Amino acid sequence: MNNKVNVYIKVSEDGKMPSYGSLNAAGCDLYATKYMEIKPGEIKIMPLNFVMAMDENLEAQIRPRSGLSLKTNLRVPNSPGTIDSDYRDTVGVILENTYDIANLPYDIAKDPNVLKVLKEKYREISLVDYLNSKEDINLDTNNFLSILEQKIYLDQKGNPYGTIYINKGERIAQMVFKEYKRANFIECENPQKIGENRGGGFGHTGVK
């Protein structure tokens, strides 16, 4: 079966050519071009340092890697992200760390070994002390809130528990090429009378 399409690509410094992991893999792997730290709740863009051109009837979809989604809190929030055929700038991947630090007690309840990790690899600090250590933050001590007394845990790099570290060259996402159709919108007085109208709204067909 001939299912290949021509994609013209220029890889710049620190970029890496997308590659397929197996003979029939639908998605090609995309690689981090630099070291990146993503704290819990943060969203960042990883530039892939390549520009490409494809046939006008194609789009490229950026999707998460299943292994990362299963084993980490790293997500591609706009998945599938679309790259249009007429886009000619550097391709990038939007990455989000979805870890919620409020879930730490539940993580400990599920796996008490987390306590050992916190003791050996993290230091406990109050939120107010953490904020006061930041040069760009000036706290109003006259309006001190009790939430500032809560404890957070910082690793050896000074980042909070749950921070995701991405190394240059790591596989961070995958890209799939798909054909698409553009709509020719035609104004109509009563679209409900065209074709079959099943009726109902969201969830009308049930959940089972």
UniProtKB/TrEMBL annotation:
It catalyses: dUTP + H2O = dUMP + diphosphate + H(+). GO terms for molecular function: dUTP diphosphatase activity; magnesium ion binding; transaminase activity. The keyword Coiled coil does not apply. Residues 15-98 form the dUTPase-like domain. It comes from the Bacteria. It is an enzyme of class 3 (hydrolase). Its EC number is 3.6.1.23. CDD domains: trimeric_dUTPase (cd07557). GO terms for biological process: dUMP biosynthetic process; dUTP catabolic process. Keywords: Aminotransferase, Hydrolase, Nucleotide metabolism, Transferase. Pfam families: dUTPase. Belongs to the dUTPase family. This is dUTP diphosphatase.
